[in-house]
Amino acid sequence: MVYRRTHQVVKRLAARRSAILAAARDAAAEGGMVAVQIAPVAIRANVAAGTVYRYFPSKADLISELIADVSRDELAAIRRAADAAPGPSSALAAAVTTVAVHVLSQRKLAWGILAEPVDVDVTASRLASRREIAGEIAGRIDAAVRAGHLPAQDTALAASALLGALHESLVGPLAPDNTEDSGKLRDAVQTVTLLALRAVGVMDARARGLVVQAVLPGKTLVGA
Amino acid sequence: MVYRRTHQVVKRLAARRSAILAAARDAAAEGGMVAVQIAPVAIRANVAAGTVYRYFPSKADLISELIADVSRDELAAIRRAADAAPGPSSALAAAVTTVAVHVLSQRKLAWGILAEPVDVDVTASRLASRREIAGEIAGRIDAAVRAGHLPAQDTALAASALLGALHESLVGPLAPDNTEDSGKLRDAVQTVTLLALRAVGVMDARARGLVVQAVLPGKTLVGA
DNA sequence: ATCAGGCCTGAATAAGTGTTCAGTTCTTGA
DNA sequence: TCAAGAACTGAACACTTATTCAGGCCTGAT
Fold first, then answer.
1. Spatial distance between the Cα atoms of A182 and B211, rounded to a whole number of angstroms
2. What residues contact residue B32 under an 8 Å CB cut-off, 6+ apart?
């Protein structure tokens, strides 16, 4: 054989794969999952349609990886925010706020990852994504319960309820389209975080304090 | 003209229309929206595929009407339950419980109406459906606020958050599949209702009382 | 009984996209 | 420079379902 994959080629292949995934992500962020079609994504990534299939066996695999990718980033952000908090309750508040801020700053992408109809089956990937995020939130709730800050409860159910509340109210079809007004965005984040904390049993007064703390750090609402 | 629509014919036409809608509903309840395809629905309704188009201009219209139909029933059930309650807080609890019980007893249908991917555009109909239900819940929250039972808040946002929490935790992909165990179903309804009430600011202790009251009336979890 | 006119049928059509693959281009080592 | 082998291209294909429509059937008035 006179051809071997040299390091340079391996790097280029990896780069191309990333480019395709990035193109898919951009497409989803711009137009939702409906815009993630092989031909357009290929054009964005500067390859031919057929090339996509050298990197992903099918569209379902491409989208599944996209979902996994975004989820991984999201989970990392949640952990970072929660771990930086001084205690379990404020960690929970930070986690919730992080999710809220992220979905609001990338609404189309979030909607696409979470719930937008797709013509291929990505339920497994979506399920895994939800499991990861919900598991993290459940863990934070549990920590607060163990610290005596919250009443005992079914943390898994509570976690999925919290996420459902965040998603529906912030990126669901009824969500007000306040893309412009960053003040209103911040209000929405605060309101929903407050609801979430109270839902798991934080007293109203204390919840308000936690919300202020969690939103204070000045996270910008623009840019993931 | 030697042919006029006689009353008998008019009735038959109406019956056929209902049969098609009912067939669509049955299909959705059994297999989700993915099972609502023209040919199978036509077979269920004992008509030919082409006949469906004499009653509904397109599949999108058929599904939109299906969604509207189910929503209308749901809204009526919510109002009935809430109006029968002794006060605004228990009315809210009754409304939430009603939604929870209904989605649990018809999970596939609920998922189909709410969020399942469909190959035609039914966003308008789904939006209207959510608006109706969320509006009703928002009204109930507002009543409780005005009665001084809850802190002032953005009731529209709260309502959509509550519905999101119910849906995600009860019929979302993470929802445990307790179809069999009616005891667990009841627990889930109670837990989620409790979360919802606390979320809008009902004190924990009082919320627990309201939940017991709301779930008590012995609604069966089987059969819408 | 008859026929005018709508109603129903269901096979054929249409249309959109994911997927394939024969041919072309590029990369590597000699 | 060249040959082998891999990667890339993009037009053609495949597949699924919604939708259509020409022809047959039924209903109602005469």
1. 37
2. B108, B111, B112, B116
Å: B98 CA to D17 C1': 37
Query: How wide is the angle at C-alpha A5 spanned by C-alphas A3 and A9, nearest 5°?
Result: 120
Kindly determine whether residue A118 and residue B117, on different chains, have CB atoms separated by under 8 Å: yes
Q: Do B166 and A166 touch (CB under 8 A)?
A: no
Sole residue written with tokens 């934070």? A140
The residue type of A46 is N
Distance from CA of B124 to the nearest CA of A (A): 9
pLDDT of amino acid A223:
42
CB contact under 8 A, A172 and B130: yes
| pLDDT tens column, A15-33 | 999 999 999 999 999 999 9
Label residues A127-137 b or e (16+ Cβ within 10 Å = b): eebbbbbbbbb
Is residue B177 scored above 90 in pLDDT?
Answer: no
pTM, full prediction: 0.90
From chain A, the residues in CB contact with B175 under 8 A are: 160
Distance CA A14, CA B105 (A): 48
* Predicted confidence (pLDDT) per residue in B185-220, tens digit: 889 999 999 999 999 999 877 777 777 777 766 555
For the stretch B194-207, what's the b/e string if a residue is b when 16 or more beta carbons lie within 10 angstroms of its beta carbon?
bbbbbbbbbeeeeb
Which residue in the block uniquely carries the two structure tokens 């610290």? A147
On chain A, the residues whose CB falls within 8 A of the CB of B36 are none
Q: d(Cα A183, Cα A190) in Å, to the nearest integer? A: 11
Give the whole-angstrom CA distance, residue A61 versus residue A36.
12
Nearest residue in chain A measured CA to CA from B34: A119
Identify whether the C-beta of residue B183 lies closer than 8 Å to the C-beta of residue A220.
no
Q: What is chain B's length? A: 224
What are the residues whose beta carbons fall under 8 Å from the beta carbon of A137, sequence distance 6 or more?
A: A78, A92, A95, A96, A99, A159, A162, A163
Q: Which of A126, A161, A175 sits opposite B169 (nearest CB)?
A: A161
- Chain A CB contacts of B163 under 8 Å are 168
